[in-house]
Amino acid sequence: MSRLSRRQFLAAGGGVIGAAASGVLLGGYVWPMLEEEDLIPGRPPDVALQPHAWSTIGDHIRFAAIGDNGSGGRQAMAVASRLAETYRELPFGLVALLGDISYYGNFEERYAEVFARPMAPLIDAGVGFELAIGNHDRDLRHSDEGLKEIEAELRLLGTPGLYYSTTHGPVDFYFLDSSMPGVFGPGSSTQWEWLDDSLASSTSQWKIVALHHPLYSSGHHGSTMVARERLEPILIRHHVDLVLAGHDHDYERTHPQHGITYVVSGGGCKTTPVGHSVFTAAAASILQFLVIDVDRDRLEGRCIRVDGTVVDRFALRAREGR
Amino acid sequence: MRRDTVDRIGALGYAAVDFVVIIFPAVALKLTADQGGMGDLDGIDLLLASGVLACAHAVVAGTRLRSEERMAVRRADMWIAAVDAIVVLALAATLLPMVVLWGFADEHASMAERGYPVVALWFGVQAVAVGLAELTGRIVFWWLEPHPRRPGSWRMAIGHASTRVNRSNRRGRRQRSVSARSPVRNETDAR
């Protein structure tokens, strides 16, 4: 075998180093990102919906819940279109946003792409939106930039605060801030005290808590143990019925844990793999959202995939002895 | 096995790798969309665009390799250049669309809303990646191969010395011209 010339050595060495570097870069970062992100621009839904077609009365409400839908990409638009189509068949007056409503830039600049355009048919129909803040909505570190971002979100969506409660029909909703320092930081006890007091004074038949970080999850990020340790005792003490979360880009419903059903609904525009844990009742790595009907003492939830298929149904009875 | 058959198989294999490298990002996106529950037709536009480009470039790359096989003074040059080209292709065909889509998410979103076909953007960016790879393959091959000097060529004009033989030739010419003048000088001295 003949010796390599200097040029051959340089070109071959460059090729080998380039191949190794490309392998690491592509295999470790770019290809997983390609599979997990929603970067291809999409077209917003082009449907007109009948305004105020829902009926939220004293003992009935239907609402939708969607998480991690802030890409403005093709998959986000497809999920938003399906959400609008679902409104036609099953009108709902409220959408619970489970956080991460803006990826790839700050919310104020991307408001039109990630919220106003995809949700336009629902906004025009008068549907209300209530937000639980996610980690991508505000930087995990409590920076000035992060605060500015969250202020913009609260202002643009008309959200009353970082954490708050609302009542719709027979349900008391509690929207929590599970980002730093809401759950993890030194000032988090203020939120827990507020939640404890609010749940204690609740007189509604149903109590539903919504936050971004899941207490139980078999997905990519997994269960948020710090939140579980601090939050679960309060939820158990006050007989909360249902906890909705996002963060993991999948769908997962647990068997009742101390009487509470936990649902992750984070497939608003991206998907990541999900496993099965001992607490898992149903799980799927799909683009999806939830539609939940509460009628007197019965709650029925449906997980609707982006193609319109109902992939999971669950029913809860209001707990007695409150 | 005859050498020509081996060369043909090598070129075919290279073209196949080239095809896979170009089409892979679109396949990954399509599989993800399918797994997420998007309809069968979602993502097929990008797959078709990448498929057309991959087919075209696989033919070009295979033909380039066959022609280099005939031209190459050293066969290793051809394969080194081919590997360099495929590395650039692998990197650029995936990374460029990602960077362009990520870096200009807002611009693409508003353009898409106005009916701008995303598939054109995808095809265009991947075509740039293919162009870069093709250029790399050809330049590296040209750079590696020894080139016979032609009198009056630009390399001669700027004094590019690629081989020791050429340098020694130049020295030889200089020496010859000195010795050619020296008899005259000698004659003058003699006078």
Q: How far do the termini of chain A sit from each other? A: 86 Å
Secondary-structure element string of chain B:
HHHHHHH
| Low-confidence regions of chain A | none
State the order of secondary-structure elements of chain A, H for helix, E for strand: HEHEHHEHEEHEHEEEEEEE
Structure annotation, total helices of chain B: 7
What is the total tally of β strands of chain B?
A: 0
Largest interface: pair, residues per side: A-B, 49 and 44 residues
What's the arrangement of strands in the largest beta sheet of chain A? 4-5-6-7-9-8-10
Query: So what's the overall shape of chain A?
Result: globular
The beta-strand count of chain A equals 13
Count, helices of chain A: 7
- Provide the CATH superfamily of chain A: Metallo-dependent phosphatases
Q: Supply the number of structural domains of chain B.
A: 2
Amount of beta strand of chain B: under 5%
Distance between the termini of chain B: 75 Å
What does the model show?
The complex is a heterodimer of chains A (322) and B (191). Chain A has a single domain (37-317), classed as Purple Acid Phosphatase, chain A, domain 2 (4-Layer Sandwich). Chain A has helices spanning 6-36, 74-89, 107-116, 120-124, 144-157, 189-200, 225-237; strands spanning 60-66, 94-97, 128-131, 164-168, 171-175, 206-210, 242-245, 251-254, 261-265, 280-284, 288-295, 298-305, 310-317. Helices cover 31% and strands 22% of the residues of chain A. Chain B has 2 domains: 3-144, no CATH class; 154-190. In chain B, 83% of the residues lie in helices and 0% in strands. In chain B, helix 1 (3-36) runs antiparallel to helix 2, helix 1 runs parallel beside helix 3 (75-103) and helix 3 packs antiparallel against helix 5. The N and C termini of chain B lie far apart (75 Å). The model of chain B is unreliable at 160-191 (pLDDT under 50). The interface between A and B is large, with 49 and 44 residues.
